[in-house]
Amino acid sequence: MSDALENAKPFHAHPFDDDKLREECGVFGVIGVTDAANFVALGLHALQHRGQEAGGIVTHNHGTGFHSARRFGYVRDNFTSAKLMETLPGDLGIGHVRYSTAGSKGRTEIRDVQPFFGEFSMGGAAIAHNGNITNAEALRRELIDRGSIFQSGSDSECIIHLMARSLQRDIPERMKDALRRVEGAFSVVAMTRTKLIGVRDPLGVRPLVLGRIGDGWVLSSETCALDIIGAEFVREIEPGEMVVISPEKGVTSHRPFESRQSRFCIFEHVYFSRPDSILGGRSVYETRRQIGVELARENPVDADLVCPVPDSGTPAAIGFSQESGIPYAMGIIRNQYMGRTFIEPSEQIRNMGVRLKLNVNRALIAGKRVILVDDSVVRGTTSRKIKEMILDAGAKEVHFRIASPPTAWPCFYGVDTPKREKLLAATMSEEEMREHLAVDSLKFISLDGLYRAVGQGEGRDSNCPKYCDACFSGEYPVEPFDMIERGFKLKTAAE
Amino acid sequence: MSDALENAKPFHAHPFDDDKLREECGVFGVIGVTDAANFVALGLHALQHRGQEAGGIVTHNHGTGFHSARRFGYVRDNFTSAKLMETLPGDLGIGHVRYSTAGSKGRTEIRDVQPFFGEFSMGGAAIAHNGNITNAEALRRELIDRGSIFQSGSDSECIIHLMARSLQRDIPERMKDALRRVEGAFSVVAMTRTKLIGVRDPLGVRPLVLGRIGDGWVLSSETCALDIIGAEFVREIEPGEMVVISPEKGVTSHRPFESRQSRFCIFEHVYFSRPDSILGGRSVYETRRQIGVELARENPVDADLVCPVPDSGTPAAIGFSQESGIPYAMGIIRNQYMGRTFIEPSEQIRNMGVRLKLNVNRALIAGKRVILVDDSVVRGTTSRKIKEMILDAGAKEVHFRIASPPTAWPCFYGVDTPKREKLLAATMSEEEMREHLAVDSLKFISLDGLYRAVGQGEGRDSNCPKYCDACFSGEYPVEPFDMIERGFKLKTAAE
Amino acid sequence: MSDALENAKPFHAHPFDDDKLREECGVFGVIGVTDAANFVALGLHALQHRGQEAGGIVTHNHGTGFHSARRFGYVRDNFTSAKLMETLPGDLGIGHVRYSTAGSKGRTEIRDVQPFFGEFSMGGAAIAHNGNITNAEALRRELIDRGSIFQSGSDSECIIHLMARSLQRDIPERMKDALRRVEGAFSVVAMTRTKLIGVRDPLGVRPLVLGRIGDGWVLSSETCALDIIGAEFVREIEPGEMVVISPEKGVTSHRPFESRQSRFCIFEHVYFSRPDSILGGRSVYETRRQIGVELARENPVDADLVCPVPDSGTPAAIGFSQESGIPYAMGIIRNQYMGRTFIEPSEQIRNMGVRLKLNVNRALIAGKRVILVDDSVVRGTTSRKIKEMILDAGAKEVHFRIASPPTAWPCFYGVDTPKREKLLAATMSEEEMREHLAVDSLKFISLDGLYRAVGQGEGRDSNCPKYCDACFSGEYPVEPFDMIERGFKLKTAAE
Amino acid sequence: MSDALENAKPFHAHPFDDDKLREECGVFGVIGVTDAANFVALGLHALQHRGQEAGGIVTHNHGTGFHSARRFGYVRDNFTSAKLMETLPGDLGIGHVRYSTAGSKGRTEIRDVQPFFGEFSMGGAAIAHNGNITNAEALRRELIDRGSIFQSGSDSECIIHLMARSLQRDIPERMKDALRRVEGAFSVVAMTRTKLIGVRDPLGVRPLVLGRIGDGWVLSSETCALDIIGAEFVREIEPGEMVVISPEKGVTSHRPFESRQSRFCIFEHVYFSRPDSILGGRSVYETRRQIGVELARENPVDADLVCPVPDSGTPAAIGFSQESGIPYAMGIIRNQYMGRTFIEPSEQIRNMGVRLKLNVNRALIAGKRVILVDDSVVRGTTSRKIKEMILDAGAKEVHFRIASPPTAWPCFYGVDTPKREKLLAATMSEEEMREHLAVDSLKFISLDGLYRAVGQGEGRDSNCPKYCDACFSGEYPVEPFDMIERGFKLKTAAE
User: Which family does it belong to (chains A, B, C, D) (predicted)?
Assistant: First the structure.
């Protein structure tokens, strides 16, 4: 049932909304601090890049119970109002920012916004998750047959209903029961009246870290959200680990799943995570700079300037410049006040959508051979427009260098990707893409080069890869059950 | 869990919000018309007096399925927008206006606003109800124990969960199953993808009528909502009856409950229903005028003017004037643009709250003996202020005549009443009330007089009363189970 | 220059917006009280019937100077917010509610909303006026030629510019200078940093009264706004009088204009003023009831019921019933939650616009001969629809009795009237109107009868009429200069 | 008079609002294109960095006349609505973005938002200006004495009133008359019903450029706004030049002022203009990079990393790195979703304001000697906080290099600067500032170095400086008349 216009939705200020893979969620939780909601709001603000569509916070307060607020739009536009924040008392809280979940076909509604809440006979629990449940549709059908009433179109709601039906009497145990029925990628942050809980799926596809603030504890998708509140980074939650945290007993670690080789999402290094976060003990910025170094080694070219496609191509461009000795320059300037809904004047403006966000530094580019470094090519539509703007400004040559391998397969683990047939690399070879973009050269980093840049000196071990790289390789570490039912074809031996 | 500020709430323009009993809901449904939502919006507008806090509409459209919109505020402020109404396509729809349900202790949230919706394995159903389920809390505990997740604080949601767990495969049969577990007063309007359903509880406490429009059918709390869309009044749904309506098979009647003597709410005649509605075959306006006639016969007094307390006292004042021969006059004028939130200036204004809504016609009242006719006395706070304003204007005498017996007991069947100890008549005799209000005389119509006015020539048959008059008599036709658990004391033999 | 969408405008809840003459403004001012703005807000709320489109308040505070707020919509929806009211400090303030001024052709903009403010070399002044300046366009052209920059489309702004150019050094003297150049009808409330000023035009067309509250003073369009703040009614400002009020010197009276016979607007008695106000020493309600008495004497008819067209026909209907002995009844019920923008369902509803606001009490009307008492007939469109609804409900006969003479001429003195050709009485005789409305009889009170009802026992003295009755007689006491320039034709000797 | 809360104001997303000099306005105009308003909206979006508080557009359309809309907030949030843009028809339009004008002491109101409009006897004109009129207060007093009524607190309104009183009959001639009375810095864009007009003050302090689009013409503060609509850059309007543009006659050039040595604002090169704009024939980005080069030459230091303070320090940091050979690195990451109003949690977070916008790349910075390149030091508050964050992250040394000389004097030519005593450099020597900031070294580029970077190979000619550098030198090319009257002290011979 679609609930009409319950809340107006904001436009998306993301620069090239339809031509990037996009992380779908960020999660954050804190226990043992005064006014937990204010910490959660700050944490979600720092994780805003993981989901711009909506955000939600749940807190628990002794005396008044659970409190919640869910809103479309940016954290800074909603969770900064004293009037709203006063309605979220308590020293324990969790929050969520989201782009859109696989479950809601098309439009999101406010009731699809996490955290979700369930009242059980032994008390309530709230839950927020980053990732995607690959058997959510099958679970949903089963639960409805048994008499569950779903309130949202979100895959995450299954977890709450599975918990409600568990025979266990304790909430953490019920959560274990529920998560054992769930397949896919998930980093969960949950809370009861007295405990903060964090879980990562057995493969550890999505990140989740533990931090310390005073006498309290923090869970967050990334370390940058620890920094904003001045929390200390303790460690990453391990793949397949559940932590249960209370102020009295501290952190207790559980292992509810069978042990497996972990497969962290390699695209978190390439694009999703913030450059000031730390993943696997390394600065994300430094990893990206190193990707640029590898890229320059693999695909050198003679040119006058190395220019990033702002902002995500910047660290790799710096690395490329440093490795190649070609000067780094800001050939493309981003408009800080992005917009995407201006009305096109009657006299048509070429590449108007891109011009709203980017402008070429004409006086700098004219007559030059330019290397453009971008993080990825998805549909290729934006790359084409940028190339045209660069040529209009009088560049002599345009060479694209891409900080990831060709993206040829969709992600089913919590990333918004176009259908396979819309991915440029799914239907074209590198040379066909170069022709399609009509540039002087186009080169992607190799999958081995990318593994080297993230610290696997020997490149990718194809027998036992250390990362989930399904979007490049087509090798899905968890079978995408619902999608196969809907007709998705896995890679064949021939491909 | 309270969901903070999800929607701003309007102020209530009802004149004396805290000093009136208040009907809590109105329901409306239509099937077999093009653009059902527009008819539902008009119907709810006509029923707005039954609930001003919020309204909701659900429709079903072949092809796109169920659609819904729920809003705080008046129907005219929400369901008049073309943008919103376009999101509610279909030829079948139901709607609800509400004041507040017993379940939500205190604040209402948008998710408490009906109609409620449930997806079952054989398809979805939406349901709206007027009344109150007296065993809702007990049912809720039972359902949560079995694994149901509640999304609202409303008593009505129990019905959906009971339906989800019914072993029947057909929605009307599941609804029968569910309603047989429910106690209290309820007039239900529900819909599946193809059928409109109406039910009244076995006592028929709350009204529900059937209408015909073209080839379609209408269900409504009152006939005034048939008039606004030009529908023809067919008949009342009978106490204990369920009607299932489809365009093909028309209206089929079911009797899911054991037969009992009906007990329609007598206060619908006194105050809740609109004067242009027809109840039990009689104009509500005419019944109220007749109450004024009975009142004049029972409690005559010599005076210069009969003035209604606007607007609800008007019909009885007309009857009182006609029976007594004392001229009818508008001694109190109501401000059409009511408000209740003005900031009180530093120099305090006496009775400021009342002055925002009423003003005394000073030039008319000065030096006169005035009879004021009001529909009821609840807390007595407003009556006191009106009396003061009348005296300030120079009236020589003030005589109150009340068009209902003393309200001494709370209602648990879908009416918002103060706690018993706040009811003036629960703690004072008639003479004590007169002294408390400091008026020259104060008289209530007798319970027998009221029964005569509604057409029971012989008065009330105390062995088998035809109406629910618990608010006057303390005799509750359905045991208020949840309230007794919370500590409410029934009338003792001594009282 | 039109300023696009500066503020959204509310819909008008007035029952029959296009078929009533409409007062265009109400003014209010207070001096010598703490928190003057709160008093002004209350006063404007009581005067809301004189203008529903927008309202404005200006205050002056020692230290922080002048403050102002202007808003579209009802007083109760804007000037009740603590946040807004805190921005209006001071013990001296004036306010204005408006419908629309003659000057703004079509759409009103926020800058057209009074009070207007001007900074002069000896300090600032704010001014609000009720009425219409009949030579505003000519004055405006003259002022622009001399270098004035107008900020609004309102006729009232001329007064400020005339004041700015006056050679006098004192603000009250400048105002006299300015008002002597102005023609038409105006009741002005103005303020300097230390004084409250009130003026009525030489004919005294529009009302203005003086009140006392504690040590302070009040000016208001009507006495009902004195009642709401508990102020005492002192006297009416006289035609051609200017009062200058300061807390120290009290009220000083000036006579800036040549003396003339006054011509108060007789329609204020019929419809514009609130029934609980006092005009010329008489209750407006009582005058209207007396109009009903005169109407019954002039045009008796045999019938079963006398029903008012709510709400403005009510007092005259009461008088008609009392004089004729035919019972008074509420045959038409008004919806308290008026709306006018519902979307018409595809199956067309007859008279849908009227049904949103009124419903016939069918069970009461069926088979009866009904006298409908209304205050006036303007275009006749609503009268027709009401008649149809009454006949649909089964009435046997319908007799219209109108509490004013035929409205055959537009008003140019601050009342919103249709163009002359749209006035039913401008093109039809009484019998033609009866046929047009298709009723059994239609009778208007005579002009003499109306004069008798307002206390002129001998009727209208056509040599020296005591009231402005131009809308009935076509005799304009001030020549409508701008309108004649635009082509309006005055009554000829032949008419 | 302050008009309370007429429009809600947005928060400012500018990173360090109180610690930057800030350009106050951008102007844009276009003639001879269909749907001029859409072009103006795009142009203002590109100029948003010159004023984020509010924006306004005026258009003229044959038939319907002038149209206008003024709004608080970003261009992208207001002038993207089809509903609004449809209210701005015509092929000629001008627009304005603003931060705040000198005139409005404190709060801006919607009526202070330009363009301003005046109706003269020969037709209307609208005007927008970038800069500041240094004798506005004196002019305002004179105009009020003569009978002008001001509608805003803005200095720009003087121009309209002077024009209204000019004895010339033609609008461009009236504008010349008016501008000859005005002192200060101004780049004006204006329009009549048929002409677009541009003017720069005799010193040419603020920029203004001319562009060509199809058969139409464009005026803009910067070339980046030509790029966004695909217009061709023609030339800069010259200091002291007025251009009058019509589609028929093209561009005609006038010289209404006496000729003087031009003094363009050198801070436009340092910070105000966008890096992709072209000023004086050079890329602004390239000039800033060259400032970094000069800075590295003047003040070398041994270190591990050169990090910009984002985003304005970036080009100079690149230049510094290239000249010094020290690697460039993103040591500080800016949050793309800036906010400034989060509620501080009870456990105080150090430097919370800065953390909302910036985060240190801890893993990169730890143990390093870091050079931070920033564009300027105003109050020094932000520099201190950034230094603390860098040290918290474990940096070994912190060296500040500033891309402008010490800012010791306020600007009175259209830039928002703190009072002189709040400027760090007004009260401290370079070494005192270093101690105050507690950094290892702090060096500013010299004034001569800055002149060299902008292309004056020989440095600053102190007898005849080519730029306005009053903020550094205290030498004001136009006497700040109003400010001196208010007590501002010019530089003495001793200083």
Answer: In the C-terminal section; belongs to the purine/pyrimidine phosphoribosyltransferase family.
pTM summary value:
0.87
Q: Is D471 annotated as a binding residue?
A: yes
Q: Least CA distance to D335: which residue of chain A?
A: A46
D328: three-class secondary structure by DSSP: strand
Measured CA to CA in angstroms, residue A56 lies from A29, A59, A96, A113 at distances of 12, 10, 5, 7
pLDDT digits over C350-374, tens only?
888 889 999 999 999 999 999 999 9
- D387-398 residue pLDDT tens: 999 999 999 999
| Contacts (Cβ under 8 Å, ≥6 apart) of B159 | B116, B127, B129, B133, B175, B178, B179, B182, B188
Q: Cβ(B192)–Cβ(B169) under 8 Å? A: no
CB distance B68 to B126 below 8 Å: yes
**Active centre residues of C (catalytic):** 25
Å between C355 CA and nearest CA of chain D:
31
Which has the minimum average pLDDT: B100-104, B285-289, C480-484?
B100-104
Residue pair C360/C331 in contact by the 8 Å Cβ criterion: yes
Say if strands A65-72 and B2-3 run parallel, antiparallel, or are unpaired.
parallel
**pLDDT value, residue D100:** 61
Q: Is C5 in CB contact (< 8 Å) with chain D?
A: yes
Burial profile B287-307: b = 16 or more Cβ within 10 angstroms, e = fewer: bbbbbbbbbbeebebebbbbb
The chain-wide mean pLDDT, for chain D, equals: 91
Minimal C-alpha gap between A85 and chain B (Å): 9
Report yes or no: A171 at the B interface, CB cutoff 8 Å: no
Q: Is the pLDDT of residue C18 over 80?
A: no
A315 closest CA partner among D330, D347, B474, B383: D330
Buried/exposed code over A113-141 (b: 16+ C-beta within 10 A; e: otherwise): bbbbbbbbeeebbbbbbbbbbbbbbbbbe
Name the residue among A66, A84, A147 with its Cβ closest to that of B164.
A147
Interface check A489 vs B, CB under 8 A: no
Q: Running DSSP on this structure, what letter comes out for residue A131?
A: E
Residues of C in contact with D77 (CB under 8 A): none
A73 CB-contact burial (10 Å; exposed 0-12 / middle 13-18 / buried 19+): middle
Exposure letters C409-437 (e unless 16+ CB within 10 A, then b): bbbbbbbbbbeeebbbbbebeeeebbeeb
Subunits that touch chain B (at least 3 Cβ pairs < 8 angstroms)?
A, C
Using CB atoms, which chains have 3+ pairs under 8 A with C?
B, D
- Using a pLDDT cut of 90, give the percent of chain A over it: 82
| Cβ contact, residue pair D342, A38, below 8 Å | yes
Indicate whether B239 pLDDT > 70. yes
Residue B4 forms contact with A (CB below 8 Å): yes
Known binding-site positions of A for [4Fe-4S] cluster: 265, 411, 468, 471
Q: Which residue of C has its CA nearest to B280?
A: C363
Query: Residue B25 catalytic?
Result: yes
Q: Which structure tokens are listed for D12?
A: 């400012």
The SS3 assignment for C140 reads helix
Closest chain A residue by Cα to residue B142:
A121
Residue carrying the six token digits 């609503």: C382
- Could you give the residue ranges of the DSSP H alpha helices within B170-243? 171-180, 224-228
D193 part of contact set with chain C, CB < 8 Å: no
Question: Binding site for Mg(2+), residues of A?
Answer: 312, 374-375
Strands B397-402 and B441-444, sheet pairing: parallel
Least confidently predicted of B391-395, C149-153, D293-297:
C149-153
On whether any CB of chain D is under 8 Å from the CB of C82, the answer is no
A293 neighbors A323 (Cβ within 8 angstroms): yes
pLDDT at C469 > cutoff 90: yes
pLDDT given for residue C213 in this prediction: 96
Contact B360 C276 (CB under 8 A): yes
Q: Is the pLDDT of residue C4 over 50?
A: no
